[in-house]
Amino acid sequence: MNANGWFQIFLFFGVVLLITRPLGVFLYRVFEGKPAFLDFALRPVERLVYRVCGIDEKQEMRWTEYGAAMLLFSGVSLALLYFIQRLQLWLPWNPQKMTNVAPDLAWNTAVSFTTNTNWQAYSGESTMSYFTQMAGLAYHNFSSAAVGIALAVALIRGVARRESKTIGNFWVDTTRAFLRVLLPVSLVVAVFFVSQGAIQNFRPYTTVSVIEPQSVETKNADGSVKKDTVTTQMIAQGPVASQEAIKMFGTNGGGFFGANSTHPFENPTPLTNFVQMVLIFAIPSALTYTLGRMTGSARHGWAVWSAMAALFLCGVLVAYAFEARGNPMMSGIQTNTSATQPGGNMEGKEVRFGIANSALFTTVTTDASCGAVNNQHDSLTPLAGMVPLVNIMLGEVIFGGVGAGLYGVLVFAILAVFLAGLMVGRTPEYLGKKIESYDVQMATLAILVTSLTILIFSAIASVSKFGISSISNTGPHGLSQILYAYTSAVGNNGSAFGGLNANTLWYNSSLGTAMLLGRFFMIIPILAIAGNLARKKHVPESLGTFPVTGPLFSVLLISVILIVGALTFFPALSLGPILEHLMMSAGKAF
Amino acid sequence: MRDIVFLLGTIVFFVLGLAYLKGCDRLRPEK
Fold this sequence. Notes:
The complex is a heterodimer.
Chain A lengths: L2 H29 L7 H15 L9 H24 L16 H12 L9 H4 L2 H31 L9 H27 L9 E14 L5 E11 L4 H10 L20 H26 L2 H28 L28 H14 L14 H12 L10 H21 L4 E2 L2 E2 L2 H27 L1 H4 L6 H16 L14 H30 L16 H35 L5
Antiparallel strand pairs in A: 1-2, 3-4
Chain B lengths: L1 H26 L4
């Protein structure tokens, strides 16, 4: 670790803090229908969308109607993306003549992008046409993020409203998130990325002569060795910058190329790397302020933000410390820092970004449900690799995905005030609403669905031939690969640990199912909480009310998140990364 | 064939989702 690394980490943290309030106010104004930035240009377009789609802007929905509309929208979007992939050979913008995607991979990808996961069991440059990338995948980057924001706003309304049967209108909230928030920022950021060197074109791939021809030896089936000389290289092209902007701002994470944000066309400079990380945290962080503003308790918003920030700093500290220390089994070679030697563990890292920015990116992308990577998580030292795993296991509530982070952390907030209520023997209250058994049941259901799905699927894959045959390392590292895949899928993160061949019928089907359960079976009980809270009366604060506006609440919230996560996943973690760390210290690697 | 299986599976999932939603609503007290 060095001062430069910490400076960049704290600069990032400071920028996120700075944009939280203004963006939070903007979100508040947009979703409350108040005058907001770019009204003059986008409000007429918004009205036109409602007119064309037959949406009554003033019509409100009960939580069941809101949930059913969300399911309908997601189901139709999923089917659309499936068919685009299955038919891409006959659709436009396919200069490389990419064949139609196989059914299991097409389904996995359709589910993945509909659920904001962006798990990719393929490399974009060798599988997807430009049409599929833009009309299929990039469209879902917008729509799944917009749905997430809409759901978070609906839950906030549930907390804020008094004796109301409704929590907003799904179509209006989604349109506003799409049109007023995601689209303008993505447009500006895409142009910025192009200015930095990201590409944006529809050209066929470019074939170039390599500067130094390479000899490659391959073994034939009969054992004979075949020698080839490689003199040319194909460089993939495409509309990258436009997809890159929403990939980060919508916490989607699905790369245009297989290498994701390690690729110089996706992430050309250290500045774009910095901006990409800020974009991931921008909306999730701002939504905490929106929560405070809409519920009339700005201090509560900041208390939630503080809990998230503390957990984020712990994560980045651990990841950076273990990566900077490196692998003790390589103590015989030079690992100290010098002008030509970065020190620590540089395996799987882009030398343009180095250890500090890789550790930071890893922490940020898994705190949020983004899943973009600028380094390979499979190459992290065991305990640094455990950081992204734990971040996702905790429910991605450390800022979290757009919308998903906020509605996830509010589930833990409800559990926190419930526990506080039990401790003092009073009916728990949350921002003037009594928390009753139904709310706690739904909160528990939301947490149990995700935990159970991760552990059951991981267990099946770990003991079955079809699961084990895809891993590339034995021992605890192999278990980590499987555990990470299902954790990433259920948490709708989408980052891959690497090393796992996930493009098989089993993994495409089971990971797809895990993504669906992790997204929708978590959202439904959360919407139920929103609907139930909205209809309740406001209870004035009393001496027995547990305050949710100060450091005590932040500490309790952190404790609940950590205890629930630790109790659920510690046994699995101890057999994976923790065991691998201990064995590495004893001189055995996998 | 696999297309039909995956599409039917998707429809079943979303129908189950609607049933789950209905079930959560039924559990609610004081409806």
